[in-house]
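A student in our group prepared the protein record below, which I am reviewing. I have pasted the whole thing underneath without changing anything:
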Amino acid sequence: MRIEESEGVSASSKHLVFAYYITGHGFGHATRVVEVVRNLILAGHDVHVVTGAPDFVFTSEIQSPRLFIRKVLLDCGAVQADALTVDRLASLEKYSETAVIPRQSILATEIKWLNSIKADLVVSDVVPVACRAAADAGIRSVCVTNFSWDFIYAEYVMAAGYNHRSIVWQIAEDYSHCEFLIRLPGYCPMPAFRDVIDVPLVVRRLHKTRKEVRKELGITDDVKLVILNFGGQPAGWKLKEEYLPSGWLCLVCGASNEHELPKRFIKLAKDAYTPDLIAASDCMLGKIGYGTVSEALAYKLPFVFVRRDYFNEEPFLRNMLEYYQSGVEMIRRDLLTGHWQPYLEHAISLKPSYEGGINGGEVAAHILQETATGKNYASDKLSGARRLRDAIILGYQLQRMPGRDISIPEWYAVAENELSKSTGSPVAPRHENEPSSRICKEDFDILHGDVQGLSDTTSFLKSLSELDFFSDSEKNTEKLQMREHKAAAGLFNWEEDIFVARAPGRLDVMGGIADYSGSLVLQMPIREACHAAVQRNRPSKHRLWKHAQARQNATEQGSIPVLQIVSYGSELSNRGPTFDMDISDFMDGDQPMSYEKARKYFAQDPSQKWAAYVAGAILVLMTELGVRFKDSISVLVSSAVPEGKGVSSSASVEVASMSAIAAAHGLNVSPRDMALLCQKVENHIVGAPCGVMDQMTSVCGEANKLLAMVCQPAEVIGLVEIPTHIRFWGIDSGIRHSVGGADYGSVRIGAFMGRTMIKATASAVLSRSSPDINGSILDEFEDDGVELLRDEASLDYLCNLPPHRYEAVYSKILPESILGEAFLEKYSNHGDSVTVVDEKCTYGVRSPCKHPIYENFRVKAFKALLSSVTSDDQLTALGELLYQCHYSYSACGLGSDGTDRLVRLVQEMQHSKSSKTDNGTLYGAKITGGGSGGTVCVIGRNSLSSSQQVFEIQQRYKGATGYLPFIFEGSSPGSAKFGYLRIRRRRTSF
């Protein structure tokens, strides 16, 4: 239901009492509540506001005896480390302290209070427990918001290793008790609510004209005015006069009283009425929130914004801001170093186009009044599966894949469709019968390499040619609404050669997290791949972005080599679309900077941390191969490998980027070395403790074959043909997987701890001198030969310990878990160079240690079975090995609700009557990669009925969770097989 306009809130014949709860997250919620409350009071009703915000936020706008303010904080929102950074773990812990531990006391207090004021309706923006308290008190409730805390916290839970999952489930349950949601523009997915009513922007009204405000401030019309609105300055940040261009002044909101501001910066009072000041300014510089975005849109003010870390409301508001041509993104580095001029000048050239309603406060108040008097806005239908626990985790991802059916704003869908973007990569229009070679030859001369009939490569080349066309044609600027495409249009010099590389993601068929323990692994390169286009230019001929040019001008060093990167798909994954740096920044004196310094360099702005996967290739080549880059480098990255699905999107980006950079500079790197160098990017610069199987598969894999590799450290032993009667699928659970997540790292540490303990035990038995070795344990080793013990005392890889030996002796002496401090005190080091033991953390040992030992055996058995006689028993045995692997993951703590559900659906399908009648179609499934979500690998008979069953599982999963899984099927060659393309744009004469 959508309500656009209202003719005011007519006074009700009944005097009503509203209890309005406001979240403790920032002033933005309080300021928008003010407008709704003001209209309710104008209609003659009493409003009790429950808030932690200062009184002046309400009393400066509402002076009425009908307004009652009760100072109580019932949720903390997101805890911010500074003005731009959210501390995810601290947010969960603070919410637990604020709303979970005292929950029963809160409910008892609120029920009593609501009854005492005789509330007719409870309104929440957007405090979860208020909905439950209202239900327990027998009072109807309504939420008014553009996001909900289950959506925000779901991402935090994933990053925190699922330690606080119950928080998300409880919040969703609380919200489900409200009658319906009054949904504000720029909204996020909120499936916990049963019914939704859309209203216009809620915006505070103006009290003064632009002319009146400027006159009070003593600012003439010829002065450009920027309002700085971060809700407090970023920590450690000191403003300087030279940050402002000539002829500009800056109004500073929330400035600390501890420091004097420089000239041309004007400190505003804490209770200053910002809507008037915003309308009187020429642009705003700040962070995105509902309040800043709604007022910028309403008063047609260009908004220069800097991304906030880890607050998932932002992408939806940002897309709305940019859709209405009101937004300019500033990278954090330029904010803090004062390179403001190019952004401010760009902002004032915009023509904001928002023409929608701004009377959402009035409309919402009318709906609330009608609801309180008994009108039923809600339908009879319930949300059903949308409120299931799984939906909270599975349905709230920012990445959107084909088939996903979450409810999103119309403008978001329109913008996506205009750009033909469904996977994060541009898709060029193409006629069905038009051969790929013809398209390529019309647009480019291919001077080296071959597209090999790959349609995604053809589409990528077509997108490159369209950038050239669009950059020369003002008539086509509407097709470049996304900033990433605008940036890409000016990235290359079309007179010079461009080098293109392609690298696929991978499906982990067997081996998974055993790679770092030396296991045999079997991996299949998938159809989806990343393309990287690289061009090198002399610095004097390199086209710089405005802010990069401003930075170079400030140094007065002349033209120096610069790295500029554009990443397609940024709008779907909440990251900055561009990155640039001086290549000399990689140097520390006359040597390349350390990997540790590089990791900190890229981590300082999480919205641009993605660049470490691409730019890190340059530092690794400098450090490991001694390469020095004297030219500027332009890189365009376009990946169709979905992020966070456990199919190695990061490795595909690393391999494609490094392969293209190497080709552009004439570097001859062997496939094996290429994979190892890319692993260094991820381990040492990104800081993710992955094994090498992902990069090796992306480089060395071949279509429709499994890459067999022994990870000791990286020996490819061959390619295994997938028998024609067998097929593999990947089904995405919707739970975001991260190899850098806490669970994967702790399991890896536990495995290395176990290896250390095994080695120490064997050494002690050999010496017979350790006081820790008692008689009963010595008895276990009585018949063991010296050579066997020596091998185990010097165990290089955990997978070299046979399962029978582990079961016979070592499983009995390994603890279930151990505190990091206790382990370090006894063993000093766990022997893994890419992870660090946290003294305060307790690590599982026995299960993480057991998994790779048995997994290595399972993979060897799987490989042997693939070449055995074709039979139903063969498929059954292969499937059983997948199931065993899946449950071993769970024993390590790397399972997830979604992947478990998918495996159960495969089992149900396998054992159904129809499958038995058809002689079986699906035979097994397992979680893949680093676990804790991501994709499930399914094995089945290569037949139409198998594909139909996979499709049926997809639909059942959607029915249970509200999330439609992405299905991976098909394969493609690795980067070594693809090689590289050297292309030059063909100029067409008219």
